Every structure is written in C-alpha cells, then in structure tokens.
Amino acid sequence: MQSPGKSLKDALLCAQAEERLTVGVYESAKIMTDDPDSVSFCVLATDHEFDIALQIHFTLIQSFCFDNDISIVRVSDMQRLAEIVADKAEQLEDAHCVLITNPAEGSWEDPALAKLHLFCEESRSLNDWVPEISLPGR
Q: Membrane-spanning regions, if any (predicted)?
C-alpha cells in the first residue's frame, strides 16, 4: 500500500484536474457554510510561524469537519502543499486550508481519496482525530 503522503498528493492532483479543489481559509469556510455536503476531504497546513488567528480558524474548521463527517488531516509543510495545489500566486500564501469536494454524481471516486478516507478512519479508531501526513518531495 502506498504511503498516506503519496495518496494525499495524488488525491490533490486528481481533484485539481477535475476542478474540485478549494484553496484558502476563507474560500474553504464559504464552501463549508454554503454546501457542507459537497465537501469530501480537508487538509490543514501549518508553517513555521505561529499565528493565533490561524489556530482559531483551524479549531473552527476542525469542529465543523467533525460535525459534518468530513475527513481531515494536517500537513506540516505549507510551502510544499502550496507547490502542489496553487494555480495563482495569491494561493501560494493562503494554502493553509485546502478542500476536496465530492466528484460529480455518477463519476468514479478517486482511489487515492478512498485510501485517505480509510487512513483517517483508522486514525480516529486510535484516537488520532487529525492525523499528520508528510507530503512526498518533488
């Protein structure tokens, strides 16, 4: 079985190709508020600077994900996540939260995303509610 980091990278690239990716804390919050059932997966990314406002946002997003049965992981390399998902320069600075929305009705579910859901389910059974994943290098 491939590593969770490789599965995450593959799921992000697949979602990006299918235009099912939302990048940014505020953009993600808007999607979660408007249509929470459309959200399949959430990635929270930290960098080396501690920002209390960002931590408050993360706490609220995590709570929302728990309440709405959305799988959630954390990555510690926001820069690497931004390299994978950013289409525009402004997305490089706000890749702290990335959402993957559900595929269109009747389309195939991404196998990498299915592996991530299983990984999150197994982590929750071990009381690791927001597991941390390391993204692979380039």
A: none
Distance CA 111, CA 117 (A): 10
* CA atoms of 7 and 110, how far apart (whole Å): 10
Write down the pLDDT at residue 72. Answer: 97
DSSP code of residue 37:
G
CA torsion sign for 29, 131, 50, 84 is: negative
Per-residue CA distances from 72 to 89, 90, 106, 119, 132 (Å): 25, 23, 24, 10, 9
Q: Supply the pLDDT for residue 88.
A: 64
Task: Indicate the pairing of strand 71-75 with strand 132-133.
Answer: parallel
For the entire predicted model, the pTM comes to 0.91
The neighbouring-strand residues paired with 99 are 22, 42
